Amino acid sequence: MKTKNLIVTTLLILLAVVWILPLYWMIVMAITPNDLLKLNSTALWPQGFTLQNFWGVLQIGLTVRWFLNSIIVTILGTALTLVLQSMAAYAFAKMRFKGRQLLFSLTLAGLMVPKEAMFIPLFLMFAQINGHNSYAALYLPRVAIPMGVFIMAQFFRGIPDSVTEAAQIDGATPLRTFFNIIMPMSIPALTSVGIFTYILTWNDFLWPLVSATRKEMFTITTGLASLQGNFAQATELGSLMARGVIAGLPLFILFLIFQKHLIRGISMSSGGKY
Amino acid sequence: MKKLTMLFMGLVITLLLLAGCSGEKESAADAGDGAEEEVVALELARFFGEPDDELMDSTDLSKANSEAATIQILTNIFNEEYEGKIRVEKLGGSAWGNYYDQLNTTFAANDAPDVAVMHQSNMPAYASRDLLVKLDDYYTEYQMNPSDWTAPAQKAASYEGTSYGVPFDLHANLLHVNVDLFKQAGLVDEQGVPILPTSTEEWFEHAQIMKEKTGKLYWVEDATQFPISFRLFHSLMEQQGVPTVNTNSNTVNIDSDAGRNALQFMLERFEKGYSDPNADYTAAGELFMNGEAAIEMNGTWVVDQYSQELTFDYRAMNFPNLMGEKKVWANSHMWVVPKQKEGNRQYEAAMEFSKFLSNHVYEWAAGSGHIAPRKSALQELADNNIPQRANYAETASNAATFPPVISYSNIETIIKEEIEKTWLLGNSVDSVLAQAQKRVEAVLSE
Amino acid sequence: MKSKSRINLPVIYFVLPFMVVYVIFQIYPLFQAVIASMFEWDLLTSSKSFIGFKNYIHMFQDPTFWSSLTNTIKFVIFSTPLLIGVGLLFALLLNGTSSKKVLFRTAYFAPYVFSVSIVTLIWGFMFNPQKGLLGEFSRMLGVEPINWLTDPTFAMPAIIIATLWWTVGFNMVLLLAGLQDIDPALYESSSLEGATWFQDFLYITLPSLRRTLELVTILQIIMSFQIFGQVYILTKGGPGGTTRVLIQYIYETGFRDYQLGYASAMAFILFLVMAVVSFFQFRLSKEEN
Q: Is B379's Cβ below 8 Å from some Cβ in C?
């Protein structure tokens, strides 16, 4: 028993080192002056120390605005996705109605369409109503990506019908059942959908690039990219890494905060569900 | 749980309202207030990146030490000079790699910017589709002097006899040379200037000498990442007087003796160990900067960086004549004026801006390392002793842009992919040339 | 069982809001793309001309289409088991609230928060034989470093490794969520009977995870079929086009060569391939039911 634990822990530590190493390297490069990196980018230990790579970005007047844009778009996109898509998922999983299978297949189809193919029609659609350079253009298409529906439907199917039936008998409307009983039971699944949607929306690049073309409407992703000169990885590697850290850090912190909801504590699992 | 939900909904609603307000503000500004506004807002699309924050509003040309800084400062100066009349607004924020993606979507929506930078290689795609304003008459109207432009620059700016661009620069491949290594190998003349080979046989002789005397690689370039090997191939074809593609007869000359000579030479350098077949762009640069390679074939854009940073004796030199005429790959940045819908046209303002930039090609060349497209500017650069410029001044006339084909990117990718198969996959020279020929012919016939 | 004959109002307000957004922003553009596949549609000028099935005929004779499709399928086949297997391993090992587990979970998930451009930047350097960490390690061990990104044998594995590092957190998180729905009482009673952890795994965990595993598998397959960013930036489809995946070819055709019609046709075929694969997977899972 003890040796098994030791083996497992060693394996975990080894893998964790492998996983963290590239990120550690990224941070090392981010705090190294660009000039030193031009000659040697392998060093695991910083060859020099500078905060200029970060400072250079944060000093730019619009960085705060870009962060704000990203935050607004991402929060709206995630909130709407969580609510709208889990409601639809619940209907698909738990309610019987004509055309359910067809509609669900249609929804799943949306996952299988390469966005590069739909890109231009979507772009032209917004262009026709002069809808670009707006938050709506950035978060609405995200809400249409049905990954959340699929994930939540699968999890809702795992909830026994007895739960919903019991609520019905108690006189609860479907809406009340959904919000008061089903949703609280599904925190881990909802947390995963929330995390994924948040990250994917935040890191979305090509769409904001072509849709939000005014400097004030850049997201942090496109804003940071706009700073990049030609052959940037040869000339400003440290800055590139620093920008990557800046863009990713908020997401990392968010994951740290919310990941505990992925796990059900002992108090929840006994009696709470069945 | 309920309280959290309520708080959450409240937050969402607040944000939705916020978002709604911002959205409206943008569309109000958008809604064609052109009639009331006196100032012409000129939409500019460009890459080159952004300079440090303190230079974003600067009008001090002495601070222009990079592409980003130079273009931003020039734009600021223009806005200052034309205050109240024209205001240039930079559209979008694409890095170089995504620039055309962004630009192309604006064309797709029939809402292209008023003035945009474009490569000579890509311009034919837009010119052939009648998406750009023809500029010959504007040159006259705005007293722009095309005769001051060098021959390659004039050629680059036109397509099928009509001018579509205002040249900003030519950028070409140079040889970046480690003079110290050359001295060590004894390959310098009495003035200590490196001696470059004048034929492929000499190339191999010199490479062998370099290997014996210094143990270092003779020559490196990015052989895998960007289409730099493609540019070398094109240069060697041009040197033999055989263009890769003949646009007049719409024929392809890849599978030819000239093609074989070029590719065979390129491959042999790797096979004999005088160059690194796996080097990507940064690796090639690092090899050179660390003194592991005597020559790096790279562009004009690194001249200032190398000049300022290298610790050894560095010299930028013209690409040598190895196979006949002295020619080398070049591309050109130029300013084009996309056509606009009636009522949205700001062609005059666009020309004012383009003319302004054309008048400042000296500063651009000095700040970026690229080659000025105007003879007067070239003279000035030589007179003012800007570092290294005199050493590659000849490239201004050797510059050979790729033949103006409509499907340039496609052809570039095909050729690059096929020729690299010889040193990366071990395919034979004949088979890749035949494949490339077939594929490019297919593209041309579409 | 509530009424089926009346108009089911709750269904409408549960499904409609999402459906409205979905139809407008996903179905409508998709519909247009399908139509576009029967046209010659120039990206820059938006000029269109109807050509029927010519795009599809051209596609089936296009060697680059076939090589791209093959590369995509290769990627799906080799990466899917790896991504699911490792994700499952992590989820099983790290199910719990101890701070040690939290630390490890964070480590394995962390790469997912970064964008594809920074991930490929890092791995582009990692894989570089002269300057990358992997090259350094090889040299320390006295082994000639591998040219990961320029050697046709290693280029696809390199992409798979980078993808594993980047996205395994996704599968891990989903499987963790799935593990939460397993009644711990099952494990308690089995330990009373003296079952080993392997028996627990086979007879309790796996069957209970079946629904989540189906979810993860189908999502992973669908996402793998659409791989693009990592390949495009790490190898640009090279060396010599041997790693070009179908989405890359679709992107090049549509955005670089301006042929939206042809690009749409290929996208539609890719969609059909995914639909067929999903269909068979659903069949399989239904049978196991």
A: no
Chain A residues within 8 A of B102 when measuring between CB atoms = 209-210, 213
A-contacting residues in B 295-324 (Cβ below 8 Å): 301, 305, 309
Mean pLDDT, chain A, rounded, equals 88
Q: C137-166: string of b/e by CB count within 10 Å (b at 16+)?
A: eeeeeeeebbbbbbbbebbbebbbbbbbbb
Among chain C residues, CA nearest to A265: C97
Classify residue C74 as exposed, middle or buried by CB count within 10 Å of its CB (0-12, 13-18, 19+): middle
Subunits with 3+ C-beta pairs closer than 8 A to B: A, C
Q: Which residues on chain A are in Cβ contact (under 8 Å) with C173?
A: 192, 195-196, 262
Q: Best mutation site among B11, B105, B310 for testing chain A: the one with the most A CBs within 10 Å?
A: B105
- C138/B contact by beta carbon, under 8 A: no
Distance from the Cα of A134 to chain B's closest Cα (Å) equals 5
Instruction: State ipTM.
Output: 0.90
Q: Give φ, ψ of B121 to 5 degrees.
A: -65, -30
Q: How far is CA C244 from CA B258, C115, C239, C249, in A?
A: 29, 21, 9, 7
State whether residue A147 sits within 8 Å of chain C by CB: yes
**B105 is written with which tokens?**
């979507």
Cβ-defined contacts of C144-149 (< 8 Å, 24+): C147/B278, C149/B224, C149/B280, C149/C124, C149/C234, C149/C235, C149/C238, C149/C239
CA distance C234 to chain B (A): 9
Q: Which residues of chain A lie closer than 8 angstroms to C263, CB-CB?
A: 116-117
In this predicted model, which residue has the larger pLDDT, A120 or A41?
A: A120
Spatial CA neighbour of B210 closest among B294, B320, B312, B267: B294
pLDDT above 80 for A270: no
CB-based contact A217 B52, cutoff 8 Å: no
Ramachandran region, residue B166 (left: φ > 0; alpha: ψ -120 to 50; beta: rest): beta
- Report the alpha-carbon distance of residue C145 to residue C213 in Å, rounded: 37
Separation of CA A16 from chain center:
22
Whether the CB of C264 is below 8 Å from some CB of chain A: the reply is yes
Shortest distance, CA A93 to any CA of chain B (angstroms) = 23
Query: What CA–CA distance (Å, rounded) separates C193 from A242?
Result: 55
Highest-scoring range by mean pLDDT, A2-11, A49-58, B191-200, B385-394: B191-200
Q: Does B108 touch chain C (CB under 8 A)?
A: yes
From residue A61, alpha-carbon distances to A56, A57, A69, A231, C126 in Å are: 10, 9, 14, 24, 33
Q: Are the Cβ atoms of C114 and A256 closer than 8 angstroms?
A: no
**How far is CA B75 from its chain centroid?**
20
CB B330 within 8 A of CB B345: no
> Which stretches of chain C score pLDDT less than 50?
1-5
The pTM for the full model equals 0.92
What tens digit of pLDDT does each residue of B248-280 get? Answer: 999 999 999 999 999 999 999 999 999 999 999
Q: Which residues of C touch B282 (CB under 8 A)?
A: 125, 128, 131
Is the Cα torsion angle B128, B132, B133, B138 positive or negative in sign? negative
Task: Say if residue C239 is preceded by a cis peptide, omega within 30 of 0.
Answer: yes
**Residue at token pair 């000359």:** B253
Low-confidence ranges of chain B (pLDDT < 50): 21, 23-36
Pairing of strands B217-220, B293-299: parallel
CB-based contact, B222 to chain C, within 8 Å: no
Q: CB under 8 Å, gap of 24 or more: what pairs does C8-11 form?
A: C8/A95, C8/A97, C10/A91, C10/A95, C10/A173, C10/A174, C10/A175, C11/A91, C11/A95, C11/A97
pLDDT of residue C187: 83
